[in-house]
Amino acid sequence: MMRPTFDLAVYLVLDPGLCAGIGMVETARRAVAGGATMVQLRDKDGGTARMIETGRALKTALAGTGARLIVNDDVAAAVEIGADGIHIGQGDMKATEARRLIGPDAILGLTVETPELAAQADPMLVDYIGAGPVFATPTKLDHKTPVGFDGLATQIAASPVPAVAIGGLKAPHVAAALAAGALGVAVVSAICGQPDPEQAARILRQEVNACRRMS
Ligand code: TZP
Ligand code: MG
């Protein structure tokens, strides 16, 4: 087996609360139909059993779409689900430990909040960084200090691995995020809980595609 290829263009981070209307699986299904390229299962309060149940349903829903399924924090759940990868933050286990547990064939993402942390991302272990937060956001109340697009660019310039930008990003911010060096945008509330998650994802994807064509 080989590590799956992935495209950070439109990276949906699921939130159980914001997805309450139609649920996380249906939100992901519609977002991917609209052009989301990655889906992260992030369920801070769900516990491993609920992660596994939702993750299996997500895996079925995304099968054959080309979108990658990433699990936040919970390596045991990621392995059980057969997810494409895992995403960890600075407060979670070290990248060496995460890589050891998930093996060589899974994608490993790492959140960074400073250029120093970005520079420390080891390309032998880490496949991409989540860089930011660009803006303050009510979606994650304990987020670190927002860095804006200049701070984002500094983080990404320091990183030896590709980056996706996160934190309060909506379609009008895509161009600035990509100009700062991000390969795409990671979003929660720009898709989760939107009246039409498919269309919301489509607009984000069109923005990313348009910016990539111009660069
Ligand atoms: N990490 C940094 S900000 C954030 C996460 C998970 C939440 C982003 O949510 P939104 O709704 O896209 O601002
Ligand atoms: Mg984490």
Automatic annotation (TrEMBL):
It comes from the Bacteria. Belongs to the thiamine-phosphate synthase family. 2-[(2R,5Z)-2-carboxy-4-methylthiazol-5(2H)-ylidene]ethyl phosphate binds at residues 137-139, 168, 188-189. One of its GO terms (biological process) is thiamine diphosphate biosynthetic process. GO terms for cellular component: cytoplasm. This is Thiamine-phosphate synthase. The keyword Isomerase does not apply. It catalyses: 2-(2-carboxy-4-methylthiazol-5-yl)ethyl phosphate + 4-amino-2-methyl-5-(diphosphooxymethyl)pyrimidine + 2 H(+) = thiamine phosphate + CO2 + diphosphate; 4-methyl-5-(2-phosphooxyethyl)-thiazole + 4-amino-2-methyl-5-(diphosphooxymethyl)pyrimidine + H(+) = thiamine phosphate + diphosphate; 2-[(2R,5Z)-2-carboxy-4-methylthiazol-5(2H)-ylidene]ethyl phosphate + 4-amino-2-methyl-5-(diphosphooxymethyl)pyrimidine + 2 H(+) = thiamine phosphate + CO2 + diphosphate. Its cofactor is Mg(2+). It comes from Pseudodonghicola xiamenensis. Gene3D superfamilies: Aldolase class I (3.20.20.70). Its EC number is 2.5.1.3. Keywords: Magnesium, Metal-binding, Thiamine biosynthesis, Transferase.
